[in-house]
Amino acid sequence: MTALCSWLRLPSQLAAVVSHICRLNVFFLFVDMARGQQKIQSQQKNAKKQAEQKKKQGHDQKAAAKAALIYTCTVCRTQMPDPKTFKQHFESKHPKTPLPPELADVQA
């Protein structure tokens, strides 16, 4: 570094400042690299922790049951999981109402 400063004909005080700044830049470069590695490790650790927590939480039965209810009665808005149950419901709860066309060919 001193050779570079003498070649550029910089005063000795300025040369010392330039030398110090160059050392700081190299130091910050290594700190950023170490911090980047630490960040990656932290993200991996957090992802593993989140996966374990999700596995520990288990299966949500209410959400699964609600997703399975795909048929809705047009009269009372009751939800049912399959067309057979839907037809049985319609025949027992709404006997005077005509059967919807989607239930006409369903075997109860």
From TrEMBL:
Name this polypeptide is given: Zinc finger protein 706
Gene Ontology biological process terms in this record: regulation of translation
Superkingdom of origin organism: Eukaryota
Domain C2H2-type: 71-93
Region of interest: Disordered: 40-61, 85-108
Entry GO MF terms: zinc ion binding
PANTHER family: GEO09665P1-RELATED, ZINC FINGER PROTEIN 706
One GO CC term, this protein: cytoplasm
Domain annotation Small EDRK-rich factor-like N-terminal: ranges: 33-69
Keywords for this protein: Cytoplasm, Metal-binding, Nucleus, Repressor, Translation regulation, Zinc, Zinc-finger
Stretches with biased composition (Basic and acidic residues): 49-61, 85-94
Entries under SUPFAM superfamilies matching the protein: Expressed protein At2g23090/F21P24.15
Intracellular or extracellular location(s): Cytoplasm; Nucleus
Provenance organism: Buteo japonicus
